[in-house]
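User: Thanks for the earlier help. One more: IclR family transcriptional regulator. Can you show the sequence and predicted structure together?

Assistant: Of course, both are below.
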Amino acid sequence: MSVDEGSGSSRHTPLLVLGKITEILDAFSLARPALTFSEIQQATGLPTSTVQRLVTNMVAQGLLDRVGDQIRIGVRMAYWAAPAVKGVDVLTIVNPVLREMRDATGETSCFFREEQGFRVCVAVADTRHVLRRDMYVGKILPLHAGSAGRVLLAWNPELAEAVLARPLEPITDTTVTSPELLRELIRQTRSDGFAITTAEREDGSSGLSAPVFNSAAELVGAVSISGPTIRMPLARCEEWVDLLVGSAEKLTRTLGGRYPS
């Protein structure tokens, strides 16, 4: 093995091979759980010979699994990951990601959970803009209005049916009050993997949200970006979908979670 792959003569020599292994593992995502050698090489930019050598060794050690030409994260990784997330407060993982989203967009980022038929803000990274939406930890909001509520309903069918069975009170002129329309929007949210709403809960405000799941593929909550529509028109919200969904996936992966089948 060469010095650049970790058998160097000095304790101060960087273990570059670990960086390459990390690049290979980072090539996988919940959206792309299986890759070929060629796809890994394209995603990492590493030489083909390096990818072949490292992947072969990673398969032998259980870091990766291989069936035919399809390569996946190894089941052994889940065994190692379990102690890392056991007993960890979800909010210790959520808060840094919210700050990253806030810094990338300039807008308020939040994490919502369902509590007793409402959605509750349990974590927030506030925008630094003077013009902002009023949001704080502990704020209680209805489930039928806004992007986070849409997400919480989309992956909880029993909750959705309970909400659809009761009157949908108007909050603004554009609040969805039709059970048939809300049912279709919930279905569309689950199909898209995210929701974007405008002025459903508050006039002149926009939001986009995506789901976070645990190891049992159960919904943990909804991660959101929100702000004034003047700064967040539909086109801007659509530009931020990849950032939002990527952040939600990062949280899901960190929690050892997986998407529902």
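User: Great, one quick takeaway?

Assistant: DSSP finds ten helices and nine strands in the chain.
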